[in-house]
Design goal:
Layout lengths: L8 H4 L18 H12 L7 H9 L2 H28 L6 H9 L1 H31 L11 E8 L2 E3 L2 E3 L2 E6 H18 L2 H27 L5 H8 L16 E4 L6 E4 L1 H7 L1 H7 L5 H4 L7 H30 L11 H4 L9 H10 L3 H33 L18 H17 L2 H29 L14 H20 L1 H12 L1 H11 L10
Antiparallel strand pairs: 1-4, 2-3, 5-6
Helix pairs in contact: 2-8, 2-13, 2-16, 3-4, 3-11, 4-13, 4-18, 4-19, 5-6, 5-18, 6-7, 6-16, 6-17, 6-18, 7-16, 7-17, 8-13, 8-16, 15-16, 16-17, 18-19, 18-20, 19-20
Amino acid sequence: MLTPNPVSAQASTADSDAPAQSPKLVQTLGLFSSTAIVIGSMIGSGIYIVDADIARGTDSPALYLGAWIVTAVLTLIGALSYGELAAMMPHAGGQYVYLRESLGPLWGFLFGWTLFLVIQTGTIAAVCVAFGKFLGVFFPSVSTTHWLWHIAHVPAWRVGPMVLGNMEIGVSTANFTGILIVVLLAIANIFGVKLGALIQNIFTSAKAIALAALILLAFTVGVNATAWHANFGAGLSQFWRNAGWNTLHPVQVGVGGPVAWVNLLVILAVVQVGSLFSADAWNNITFTAGEVKNPRRNLPLSLIFGTGFVLAVYFLVSLAYMLVLPLHGDPNGATAMARGIQYASEDRVATAALGQVFHSGGAGLMAAAILISTFGCANGMTLAGARVYYAMSQDGLFFKSVGKLHSRYKTPVAGLLVQAAWTVLLCVSGSYSQLLDYIIFAELVFYILTIAGLFVLRVKRPDAPRPYKALGYPVLPALYIVMAAWICVVLLRYKPQYTWPGLALVLLGIPVYLFWSRSSRVQAPPGNG
């Protein structure tokens, strides 16, 4: 077995050693609620807009769908691998705990630090502000340009391959709406995990129905002869257009850098920035493991069912777009058909597709679907994120108050409020959009490290109980590491604006870790649920 380190030793102690008066997390999430957290956290606004960027990057119907297949393979292997870790260590904090126990407390902290600084809070900020933007479809006064309090404009400046700044600081009606949603969900989740789960179940069901309706409409009344011929015509030769092994694709290196010509393996890795971001947050259910009933069974099942459902839906939605709109388009086109998927107005492919099906009212229907989707996504991430900071605090690596539970509701109140406060600051600063550009690379690094930890624990803890073992071990986890590492290498080479800043944010956590670990003199109550 691994030798307990001083920081994490208390988290490995049995819960029965904790003081009797200390509130403990309550196991109330069943399989349906756990799966709803997986699905609800994954489906935000990404699937409605990222297809345009993927289509521009690949410039091929086959590679456009191929990008989603790569994302599906990676995410499913990740979920299958995490299932073993989740069943082996069903504790609050999830991935933070897996990294701590396999590679050491520093790696666990760096994940938690990045999660708090950017990954969780930045995503919550983005989807909540997106809620405000799409609310503007129904209430035009809700807009990013309608300022209630404009503080300053931060001009753009260039640092190497990166362009920083170009942010509006202040409160517009759109991000004010987002701030209200952030605060509302934080307060709602204080009143017990049951309430948070109920909200999640309702909105996840609603967004699943909305996406199912989009797929059904596209596959029936929405099929367009022009789009079919452009994407699948001439004996499928149109489908395989620009998808040959010898075909080269243009990629701009950095911001304003030279154009490089790359093969299909490289371009599929480059466009993963969009598709992987849309399919991210599947690991959030592991954060809430301390509140899942029969976690050794339900955690692996919820990961498999949830990711499988979302990835199948994403592929079908992307295929549905191709039945309604041509992939190739003209950026100056006057109609949705002329602009195609590549140049859909403001990248809102779903809105363009529904507009093509209905010709009127499509924008309103899509806006309503995105409002449901973003609200449910923000709720799932709000509920889950606070559990990681709670686990970190239990290890003495975060504010002490965050490691305490409400005496009645058994929820990490301080964690929810601290998370909300930082998210609100990101909303006001306008920095979340740039921060989100950096997280996929950082997330991939942590996913690689966590799955590498699966190998480490198999060697160092061979006799540990494993109610579920990763399917396809060691081949599939090793395949994940190879594929994800390839994407990281490609992004480092061709998209440095997405990689080096993310890496810098992670490394900034090292001195913070040293501060917390050295200043934490009083041991936190053992056991993190």
